[in-house]
Write a structure and sequence with these properties.
heterodimer; A: 121 residues; mainly alpha; 2 domains; 4 helices; 73% helix; 0% strand; B: mainly alpha; Cytochrome C Oxidase, Chain A; globular; binds protoporphyrin IX containing FE; binds copper (II) ion; Cyt_C_Oxase_1 (chain B)
Amino acid sequence: MAEQHAHAHAHHHGEKHTHISRGTYYRVFAALMVLMVLTVAAWWVEKNLLEIPGWLAVTIAMSIAIAKTVLIVLYFMHVKISSRMTQVYAAGAFVWLIILFVITMGDYVARGWPPQAGPLP
Amino acid sequence: MSTLSLPQSSYIRDNSRTFTDWLKSWLLTVDHKRIAILYLLSINFFFLLGGLAATLVRVELITPQGDLMSSDVYNRAFTLHGVIMVFFFLIPSIPAVLGNFLVPLMLGARDLAFPRLNLLSWYLYMIGGLFALIAAVFGGVDTGWTFYTPFSSTYSNSNVVMTITGAFIMGFSSILTGLNFIVTIHKMRAPGLTWFRLPLFIWANYATSIIQILATPVLGIALLLVVVERLWGVGIYDPALGGDPLLFQHLFWFYSHPAVYIMILPAMGVISELISTFSRKRIFGYEFIAFSSIAIAILGFLVWGHHMFVSSQSVYAGLVFSFITMLVAIPSAIKVFNWTATLYKGSISYRTPMLYALGFIGLFVIGGLTGIFLGVTAVDLHVTDTYFVVAHFHYVMVGGTIMAYLGGIHFWWPKMTGRMYNETWGSIAALIIFVGFNMTFFPQFILGYLGMPRRYHVYPPEFQILHVMSTAGASILAIGFIVPLIYLGISLRKGAIAGDNPWGATGLEWKTSSPPPTFNFDKTPIVTEEAYAYPPEAAERDAAAWRPGSPL
Ligand code: HEM
Ligand SMILES: [Cu+2]
C-alpha cells in the first residue's frame, strides 16, 4: 500500500513529463554531426575558397557553436524536461558567461582610451 | 539524554571487528559527518604543509641578503605556500569541514542530497592534493599561486603542468560540494523550516555554493588552456602564437576574486552563529545579513579587474572596476554593523569561540578597509605588488577565514566529538593567535607602503627591523596554532562529556545528541520558530545569572 502510494506520488511530482525518447537522442546526435561537418566546411571554405572578413567568420563559427551547445544542453543534459528551478540555474550559468564576455571585451574595446600616452592633460 | 556518558550509538562508533573493516567504514562512508571528519584531518594536514612553506619564507626574510636559499628556491617556497593555502586549505576549509558536518544537521535532514558525490568530492580533493604534492617533491613550481602567463605558459621550467592539474582536479571537488549544498538546501529542509527561518550559516553557504559552481569552471578552463599551450603550442596566451597573456588574468581573476568570497562568506556565516549565541540575542537585521551574502556573491563577480590595474588593462576598464569595487564593500559593511548591533545590550560571554568571533570582526575591518585603499586606482598604483597587498589579504584570509574556522571548530567541537575542550587553554590559544597574527602582518602594511615589493627575498637593509618583527610574530602565531592541536587532541579522551547543547544555543544541530546518530535525528524535527529565537529577555536573564569567575 505504502509502496503504491509512493509510486503514484512520484508521478504527480515530476513537474513535467520526464522522458526523452531514444529516437530524439539519435536525431539530436545526427544534428550534432551535421553541425560538426559544417564547422569543418566553414573553416575549409575560408582557407581555400573565399576571403571571409574576420567578423563574419567569427559570427559563423560562433553561431554553429551556439547551435551545438543549445542542443546538448536542452536534450543531452535534460534541461528541456527539468524542473523550473533547474532551468533557472542553467540559464543563470549563461548570464554569468555573458558577464564574463561583456566585461572582458569592455577592456579590449577600450584599449587605447584615451589615445595620448602619459597622464591626462 | 544523560550528560554522564556519550550516547550508545553515534556516527563515530561502529561495530566493525577488524582494523580493515574499520578503515573501510571510514574510507567508503557516505555519512556527511564522517566525510567532514575526513576533510578535517586532510585539510589540517595541508594547513601544516602550507605553514612549513611559510616558515621557509619567513626565515629567509630575517636578513636582507638572500642567504638561506637562492631566488629560484625562494620562488618555489612562496608558490608552494600560496598554492597549498589557497587551493587546498582556505577554499575547502569551512564549507567542506563545518559545512559538510552542519548543513544537513541545521536543516533537520538525514544527510546531504547526494551522499556519494560528497564522498567523491573528498577523493577528488585528495587526488588533486596528491598531484600538488608530487609536483612539490619533484622540484616545485615558481610561478606564484596566480600562474600568470606568459611566464607559466612559455618561460617557466618548473612543474607547472603537474601543479595545475592538481588545482584543476581539486576544483571539481569544490564544485561538487557547492552542488550538493544547493540541492540539499532547496530540497531537504525540515517541515516548517522556511527560507527566512534558516540559520545564517546556511544562507552563507548557499551564496558560497553559487560562486563555487559558477566560477570554478572558468578557473578550470583558464588553467587547462595553460596546459594546452605548454604541451601542444596552441596559441592562447602567447602573443607570438596569436594569443594574449592578459586574457589569462581576466579568466583567472574571474574565478579568483569570487574565490576570496568562497573563503570569507562561510566564515561570515560562522560568525553570525557565534555572535548571536554568545550574546544571547536574536541576530540584528537577519534579512540584511542573509541578502548581503547573496549580494556579495553576485557583486563579487563584477570586480575582478581590480587585480589588473597595472597590467595594461585599459584605463577605462580600470575605472569601471574601481567603481564597482567600492560597491562590494557595502554588503560587507552591512554585516559588520549588524554583528555590532547584535552585541549591543547582549549578555556577552567571552568563551573561546566568541574570542575568535570578536577577533574576526576587528581584523576583517582592517582587511576590508585596506581593500578599499587598493580598490582606488591612484593608491593601488603606489602599493600594488608590495607587502601592503600581502598584508591586506592576510588580514582577510587569516584574520577572517582562519579565525572563523577555528572559532567554528571550537563551537561545534562538542557536537562533533561529544566532549568539551579545555576552556582555559582555548582562550589562551585564541589570544596568542590574535597577538601573533597582528605582530606578523601589521608591520607588512608599513613595509609595503615604504616600498617593499612582494615575492623578493633580497631587500634594502632599512626594512630589516620590520621583517624581523614579522618573523617573530609568525613564530608566536605558529605556537598559537599548535596549542589547540594539543588540547583538542587531549579532549578526545579526557574532555568533559558535553551533552546535547552545552552552549544553550538555538538551532536544530543542538537538538540531537552529541555526537549525533548516523541519521542525525531519531524523528524528523518540525520547525515552528525563527532562527536565533532567544526570548527578548534572554540576555538580561543571562546577565543576572552571571557569577563572578564564571566564563559563561
Ligand atoms: C572588502 C572588500 C575587498 C576589497 C575592496 C578588496 C580589494 C582588493 C584589491 C583592489 C586587490 C588588488 C591589489 C593589487 O594587487 O594591487 C586585492 C588583492 C587581494 N585580495 Fe582583496 N579586497 C577585499 C576583500 C578581500 C577578501 C574578503 C579576501 C579573502 C578572503 C581578499 C583577498 C585578496 C587576495 C588574496 C589578494 C591578492 C591576490 C594576489 O595578487 O595574489 N580580499 N584586494
Ligand atoms: Cu579581488
